[in-house]
Sequence to fold (513 residues):
Amino acid sequence: MPAITFIHPDGKSERVETSGEESAMQAATRHGLDGILAECGGNAMCATCHVYVDESWLARLPDMADDEDALLDGTASERRPNSRLSCQIRITPERDGLIVKLPERQV
Amino acid sequence: MTASGTPASTGPASVPHLDVDPFDMRFFADPYPAHQRLREAGPVVYLDKWNVYGVARYAEVHAVLNDPATFCSSRGVGLSDFKKETPWRPPSLILEADPPAHTRTRAVLSKVLSPTAMKQVRDRFAAAAEERVDALLDKRSFDAIADLAEAYPLSIFPDALGLKPEGREHLIPYASVVFNAFGPPNELRQQAIARSAPHQAYVAEQCQRDNLAPGGFGACIHARVDDGEITATEAPLLVRSLLSAGLDTTVNGIGAAVYCLARFPDQWQRLRDDPTLARNAFEEAVRFESPVQTFFRTTTREVELSGATIGEGEKVLMFLAAANRDPRRWDRPDSYDITRRTSGHVGFGSGIHMCVGQLVARLEGEVMLTALARRVAKIEITGEPKRRFNNTLRGLDSLPVTITPA
Fold:
């Protein structure tokens, strides 16, 4: 099954196996990963599953919808060009090995 | 007179029929044994009392919430089917609407109540929470519902909306009518609607553009008319949604959190030790108590759900509170645990209709619990809590407490 690597703010990295159908956020919460809150449960309403996507992966991500774009303006840690909401990134086989960095804060 | 629906005798034999009335006073007094019965009877049940289908397990509640094309909202999210009965008030443009109409109105409220908008009110909301706790520390003994759970949101939310000072006493009674009206035609609903005229008149008036202060959430909604996103006749109805669902819900959410923390001193101590847990302590209270207990959907076609066949035009009652304590989904579901991973609970719903004001609720809950945790050493319940009865909302009418300063 495709896997994804989360890099914590302290540099520690954590590899998480996904079910092949879930989002990066769902995989993270299912594994109890610290640093992804996902208060709204994946409905693109809260901006608490913010991640910084490794630059080399940006082109392979789904397009950003307007609601995600607007939510990213309100993230607790600064928005950067590689900011995304992990609930909007489905981990398909093409995204096996995706690397994302976690922000300092989610709220 | 009962609601429309397929007679129980024609329902599929595979669906268990239950005699539970989830809108009965005895049910409200202690819903938990009935919730368990509903969950254990099967993934889909039929409630003969009101001729509706019911789902009480997490998986089915989540599935119904996330299939709005099959389980629609435009025929009402209460028992009344708007296709067969005239609604008691003009339907909500967001709650009681389906895509594509819902998509447009929802986008407007999402923007007005966005994380960015919350950043702008955060300091004000936090300062008001500190002030409220100061006042309560002077009193020491008080009613945690009237003096805290109601007083705090009333001190910030109407101002944030931009409401006039006059007439605010109608807000909580109006919301109480709205949430009672989702229920069946029982005494709670009939009496609420019978007494609703003055509250409705206040709300209709207050939703007009001229009556909303510049810079507030209400004025922000009306400003979208100028951008062409909504029409001038839609704007007051969208303001009405905030008046209906923005106050009583947070009153019950904050009330639930204080009631939990007062009942479970070990959790209160954990919060005292680490006040950054405040936001999750509030979220867990929303899961544990589920201030909004139920909502209905109506099927737009025949559908199979977990082996049960439900015909077109059937009402399906979702037991959000039962889903939030389904042992199939939650470890130790009946424990209030402020460090629990609460993500995925359905206390705010799920899917396209998930509470559009959830960020306001969380902000209010977080700053209030933070203020309490920093300044209060102990919360003791000093009298019998009294329950407030409503067809949809679960909460207390009074909670006598005494607090000790830190």
Helices of chain A lie at 24-30, 66-72.
